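All the exercises in this workshop are built on plain-text protein records. A learned vocabulary of local backbone shapes supplies the integers on the structure line. Once this layout is familiar, the rest of the handout is easier to follow. An example says more than a description, so a record of this kind follows:
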Amino acid sequence: MKIVGFAAAIGLAALSVAPVAMAADNFTVTVTSNGSSATLGFASAEPTLNQLKNSALSTTLPAYTTTSIANAVINYRGVTATASYGSAGTALNFTIPAVGLNQTFTGATRNDSQQGCEPKLCAQAATSSDISGRLKLAFAGGLAASLAQ
């Protein structure tokens, strides 16, 4: 899986904003399905995004099935992203409201959708100066808010 590229894109954008010491849990993800939810913390993007896989969802939320509606709210140092399987199908909708990103990925299975999500997002962030710039501004805003606390 090529989640590492997405993690690198996020990490490079964050580093270009300001040099800061990294906390143990740079990423948090709250997953919700069938009335249950759980919040987990991770140091990097790859294990965070892996929480969208069927195996991780069913381990974290035992009532989850491959046809359950499932939602994830991902926070990376003040920048929020959402990912959701909004129906019984395989479509994964991924948004980063701070940069106006709203993409839907549809694979043969939910795991295929999750795996297809990362390369397309990484390529778009790398080739679009507009999205890259807005992502840097979003990180700067999140960083400023966390330092103000």
Remarks:
- Residues 1-22, 143-149 have pLDDT under 50 and may be disordered.
- Strands lie at 27-33, 36-42, 70-76, 79-85, 92-96, 101-105.
